[in-house]
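Note to self: the last two entries modelled the partners one at a time, which told us nothing about the interface. This time every component goes in together.
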Amino acid sequence: MSKEEDEMATRRKALTDIVKGAGYLALGGLTWGGYVKEAKATEFALRPPGALPEKDFVKACIKCGLCVEHCPYDTLLLSEHGDKKVIGTPYFDARTIPCYMCVDIPCVPVCPTGALDVMSLTSIDEETQEEKLDINMSKMGVAVVDPDNCVAFWGIQCDVCYRACPLMDEAISLVYEKNERTGKHAFLKPEVHREICTGCGLCEKACITEEASIIVLPHEIVTGKVGAHYIKGWDKNDENRLRKEKELEKKGDEMKSTLDYLNNTDDLFNEE
Ligand code: SF4
Ligand code: SF4
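The predicted structure of the combined assembly is written out below.
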């Protein structure tokens, strides 16, 4: 492991420990009171849509920059010396330029190595039964809310992040809560649904506070790593995984029967 990868792993571990210590992994709606500052101080990289898990991504990416070149919004950057990320790999800073969720996802199919995995963003169209790209399947990260600084938690009306979200009412909803102290006011608090959130960062970009009160963190840090053998029947990504595994299994079976045929010497020995 290079020094930079090593540093990144250490920082990531520190953040994971913070999260686990806080016991916040069990929460559905992500509000990270007191932990957002630590998270912001931790160096991490938000990767383009379809990126493999960080460790595999860093191994697979050949730093060609094609994904960066094909992004029409200049969202993606290649990390440079001093960025505290693996040099030459693509990332984005959601507060500066988020991912605008292009329907045709031009950054992904151009990746020559599969570091950006097209299949992870492919689903079957229910009507035509054909494969189609679906940017909503991307897991670039997941947004977390800082309740200490989000003005909606102070009782001030603000729904900017909610309105900025391309999956409004699915990835972010507003939760009504009565102000028990005054008895006559109410809160409308943003709540992130991490199974749906793509981590595009449009909410972080739009947030009105001086430092964003909703930020995107890498998915594996926020959710903890679930074993790859868990399949959720209702999740499109998992459906896709199952499909891919079945295809591989089929290819494996075909290969095996060809090898069995080629290796079968019975006929040779049985020939008179
Ligand atoms: S989906 Fe579009 S905006 Fe987002 S990183 Fe890819 S090319 Fe850029
Ligand atoms: S196109 Fe693929 S290999 Fe090239 S920089 Fe982007 S992620 Fe890395």
